[in-house]
Structures are given as C-alpha cells and as structure tokens.
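dumping this here before i forget
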Amino acid sequence: MRAKTAERALEKTDIGLQRDDLISLYRTMVLSRRIDDKEIQLKRQNKIYFQISGAGHEAVLAAAGRLLRPGHDWFYPYYRDRALCLQLGVTPREMFLEAAGSSEDPASGGRQMPSHWGSARLRIVSQSSPTGTQFLQAVGCAEAERLLDPESDAIVYVSGGDGATSEGEFWESLNAACLRRAPVLFLITDNDFAISVPVEVQTAGGSISRLARSFPGLHVDEVDGCDPIESYAVLKRCIDRLRCRDGGPVLVHAHTIRPYSHSLSDDERLYRTEAERQEEARRDPVPNFAQFLIERGVAPAAFLEALREEVDREVDEAAQSALAAPRPDPATVTRHVVSEEVDPTSARFAVPPGLSGEPRTMVDLLNDCLRDEMTRDGRIVVFGEDVADCSREEHLAQVKGKGGVFKVTANLQRRFGSARVFNTPLAEAAIVGRAIGMATRGLKPVVEIQFMDYFWPAMMQVRNELALLRWRSNGAFSCPVVVRVPVGGYLQGGAIYHSQSGASLLAAIPGLRVVMPSNALDANGLLRTAIRCDDPVLFLEHKHLYRQTYNKSPYPGPEHSIPFGRATIVRAGGDLTVVTYGALVERSLRAAKVLAEQGAGVEVIDLRSLNPFDWETVAASVGKTGKVVVAYEDPLSFGYGAEIAALIADRLFEFLDAPVRRVAALDTFVAYEPGLEDRILPQVDDLVRAMKELSAY
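structure:
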C-alpha cells in the first residue's frame, strides 16, 4: 500500500525518480549536512583549521549530481557544493582529508582550505577562493570540448552564489557563452546573503535571473533549490537541452537557504534577526524532505532514523581515519610550482637556427613562429582583441585584414580558419579566463592582450588562477597558456596608457614564466619554447622593437628554440657589466661604445628570460669585472632590476669593486610629449653617465 502511494506521488513529476532514487537523494543530503556538522565540531576542537559549509544547498546540488556524469562532464564548483561532489563520487574521507590538510588529500595535498573541491578522476577542476573566476574558465572548457570532440555531448557545470554574480567576470562569462553557444550549465545557488550583504544590496531588483533573461541564447530557469524533486525536474530539462548540439548555455537560479553562518569566521547573529533565522529554518531541505518521504509513504520514520545513524557512523569513521592520515612533508612545498615533466630551461630547447632568406622584423618572425607552430599542432588556438583578419568571414576576400594592431597575427585566420583564430569581446579577464579553461581541457591557447596598459583586468585570472592551478591542485591540473602582451615605451606619443612595461609585477609571481626578447631571432625562438613548454608563459613583446632595422634576422626555420633562463652576452668586456633586457639592450650597446672610446671594456648581458633568469651568466660576468649596472625600463623603486641588484650585493659582495648602480625610469608615469618621455625613461646618456661613474670609482 505504501509503495503504491509513493508511486502515485511520483507520477505527477514524470521525471523517472523511483523509491531508491529518492532514498539516495536523501542520503546524500544527510551525509552532506553531517559532514558539515562534524567539521564544525573538529574546528572547535582545533583539529582542523577552517570550515565553510554547504548547509541549505543540499537539495539542488544532490539533484544536479544525480543528473550529471562524473568523468564525462566537467565541473567548476564553488565552496558550498559539498552535496554535488558527494553525489559525483568524492568520499567523506576525502573531504575530511582536505579539512585535516593531509598529504593524502586528492584535491590539493594540504595546500588549500577545506571545501575547495578538486578531482582529476571525476573532472572536478581544482577550485580557488576568488569568487566568480571559475565562470570564465568553464566557458573556455566548454569551447575546448566542442573543438576537440565535435560529437561530444559533455557539458560543463559551473556554480556560484548570489554574491559572485556581482563580479564582472560573471557577466563576461554569460556574454562569451552566449556568443559561442557554449554548453555551460550556470547554477546560481541564491541564499540571499553574500556573507553579511543581502541580495537586494548585491543585485539590482534582487533577482539575478530577471537580469540574465535579456541575454540572447541564454535559457533561464528559476527553481526552489530546497526542493530536491522540483530541482531534479528543472535540472533534467536543462541538462537534456544542453546535451543537444547547439543548445546554448543555461542558467538555473536556485533559491536556497544558509542556516549556518557564512563560515566559522563569521557570526550571522550580528546582522540577521532571530525572526529571519527562524523563517529560514522552516525551509530547511533536510528535515523537510524527510517529512515528505514519510508523508508520501516512501519510507517510514524508523527507516530514515536508521539511515541517519548509518550516516553518522560513516562520518565518524571517515573523520577519524582522515585525522590519523599523514601530513605533507614540508620539503615538498616547491613541487608543482612549474611543470616537472617539461623543463623549458633544458638543452632540449637549445635548437640553433637554420637561417634563410632576407632579414625580417620581429613582427615577421613572431608571425612565422605562430604559423609554423599552428601547422605542427592542431591544438593551438589564437584569440584576443583584433587578432583575426576579419570576423565577418564573408568579407575576407574584399579586405586586406587586420591581424592584430601590430600585425603579429596577420593572415593566420585565413590560413587556419575562424575556429582556431578569432576575435573576442574587449574583456581582458575573459580572454585569459577562457584560455585557462581551454588549456585545462587540452587545447594550447596563445592569446593576446592588446597592450600591457590594459592588462590589469586580467590580473586576478593571472595571479590567482593561471599561475596557481598546477600548484594548488598538487599537480593534478595545469593550464599551459601563452599570453602575448605588447609592452614598453620609447614610442613618441605612447603616453601614460600605451607605454607601461609591467615586468616587475609579473616576474614576481611564482609559477609564471616571463620572457622579453630584444631582437627578431630571439623572439622567434623564445616564442616557440613558450608554446612547446608546459607552463603558463607571459610573453612580453616590446612595441618599440617590433620593426627596428637593427634587430632583424633571416627566417630561422620551424624548429629554432631557445631555453628559458639562458642569457646572452651581446658585447664582451672586462671592466664593467651591464645587466639588461628589452629595449635597453640596444641603448646599452650604444653607451658601451662611448665607454670603449675612453678605454673601458663594457660587457652587456641580455637576460631575454626574466623568470627564470640566468644567474650563472650574471655572476660569472660580475666576478670578472667587479662593477655592474642594472638597467631596466620600469620605475627605479621596487622594480625588477632592484631584485637583480640585491642578489648581486647579497651573493657577490666580495667580488664588487663599486656599489651596484641601477639605471631605470623615474618613479612617475610615461608622458605624451617627447621631451617629457625622454626625461622619464632611461636614455643612452643616463647609461653613459652611470658607466663613467662606476669606471672611475
């Protein structure tokens, strides 16, 4: 009789859930809540170090986990997605291993906080703490899925809270997903609060789904996220749509609750009334679903009580096992900062050029390298602002084509097609974020940020995602993206917003390879290394050097590469060392000629690679000359050259016959008028003066 009642109750849903399915959903919800409760207990006992819960979100997440396919679909969850991860196959012990910071934790090996999910086995991409960064990566992953396997019905799940939808990257991701019709399921679990800030202060009108409905091609659904059956029905319809070819992205706005504080570092009683909290408790999905199962005859109260007791035993055993598990060896902290499989500093990348043809500019040889590498490797995609020849393909025959503002990517779209070379919206974070998702999925993106001066919206993606993914996942995931960025001044009219260098900030980020060639041949060889290595690379191209006649080279062939971290001595000398890179290499050579006329032999070192840099070559030269000038284009104070100077003073003090001298830009900004620019940026005369002073010391 009870079974028949349950069947009749389910007939109305017409979504295929049977009694065992309902019991399984309930068990996942209880398990998720019990793990939260156990972690809270362990945190108060000082046995773990942080706790943030998924309480109140269990219903919609358990439903999503039953409908999605672990190991087939891709997942970009956020910290409240405990029930989803349990349903996908993450075990309670694995969650407690993360909370305990154990070396056996498969998500990060003790490197991340609890509830920062990650599982290569289940395709749960390592999650970070910044809110909203995951949305762009999910779009890139979905784009890569379709490019790598056009017949695939895999989709990409990405979630966030209502607070995360205030981030610009969320809106950039919606725009990109709609433009590319990417198969992305955006699940927004809206519990009305972002820590202490209520939704009406976060979102105009208080409803993210109402705002999102204006995006063409975005299917939007709204659901009571505390009701697992309604959530299952809505999500099933949306996921079925996503698995259809060209179904386009979907956003599901799920209304949930947050019965616990944001985290154990927060106390919601400071900003929520008791009446609010009691009203929210009446919507709690765990006890409400239990009552539903009892009332509909799916399971008696005694059965559910026995299930909860079983869950409690499982949770206690998992917690005790995790607490007894080994902690990470402190000696391993530098593992996975960069790839341990492909070493771009090795002799493998020392492939000499086979020169042919007439001398060509840096722009030409960069373009040659991109062409050769795209021919060699079909996984390479090139995108950014204005990089395509013409987005309106039907017009290609009628126009010369753009190919980048500096023409570095000219004719690549014509040769390789719009699926591999394409323009993007003017959104730097979206360019890098999508590239991260693509690279994680298996493509090799080579993207362009049009000017370093406009790079900064992408800095969150670069610093907290691109550089960190391999390390924070303990080597489980990587994103070997090449980001090409035109940099630098000496432009006569570049002014404040077209003359920044940026090397000082970028070179200080662990996990990034940072390169800046000074001539066409090196640009070709270093870009090839950047593309073929397995690390994220910031490839800085000095705009002033793009078309100089003095740094041209014949075509070096399709295999020429240069190891990172290997400087070159562009002028030998025994009296004074100049350590420099980029546009200051040629200026240093001109200054060295002036010193040579006065009898001083100046040795000029072109670093070429800023991180890693060639300490051995620098040390050998300074040990020989005893005097050194460090020349760099960033402002003098706290710059890249200051670190080189500090290392020389620290490690080579006994070899020095004079103080280390720095020549750099003034601690101001680059101005428009040429006379002002000349005063601000280091010039040949500045280098000559510093060299003379050191020579006479």
